[in-house]
Design goal:
By secondary structure, this protein is α/β, with parallel strands linked by helices. Helix content is 37%, strand content 21%. The protein contains six helices and six strands. Strand 3, helix 3 and strand 4 form a beta-alpha-beta unit. 22% of the residues are buried.
């Protein structure tokens, strides 16, 4: 069984459904991520999947992954002003024959809902890696 676990403030969250969905795009053979090195592990899978374009709105949750992508000469990393731009960029990457990943925060998902109709209507794939903003009970 494909297993994907992430740690969040010392809690392990089991997400086998997420791993199955990601495995369509990125080969995740029994990937278990349970350390502070999970950004590097995800980046390694980007490389193995031949991801060539990474779009992002600057975010602390993706900080290390963004640094890795920007440092890699084979990956075109683009800082966006809005999440909608990333949806369009990922569509363009697919049309141009390249794989791309959109990195965004949970609060940014709502900003690009209308733009996601592009991928839906044109049947273009999109991979979005979303970090959570805030914590339950946070004031």
């Amino acid at each position: 069984m494909l297993m994907h676990a992430i740690t969040h403030q010392s809690k392990v969250i089991d997400r086998p459904c997420l791993a199955r969905r990601l495995s369509v795009f990125i080969d995740l053979p029994k990937l278990v991520i349970m350390s502070v090195n999970w950004p590097e592990t995800i980046f390694e899978h980007f490389k193995a999947a031949d991801v060539r374009q990474v779009a992002y709105v600057p975010d602390a949750g993706h900080k290390r992954r963004i640094e890795l992508c920007e440092a890699d000469a084979e990956i075109h990393a683009v800082s966006l002003t809005t999440e909608e731009e990333g949806v369009a960029m990922m569509g363009g990457a697919w049309v141009g024959g390249q794989r791309g990943v959109l990195l965004l925060q949970s609060s940014g998902v709502g900003n690009c809902i209308n733009m996601l109709s592009l991928q839906h209507e044109c049947r273009m794939p999109i991979v979005m890696l979303v970090t959570m903003r805030g914590e339950w009970g946070e004031t």
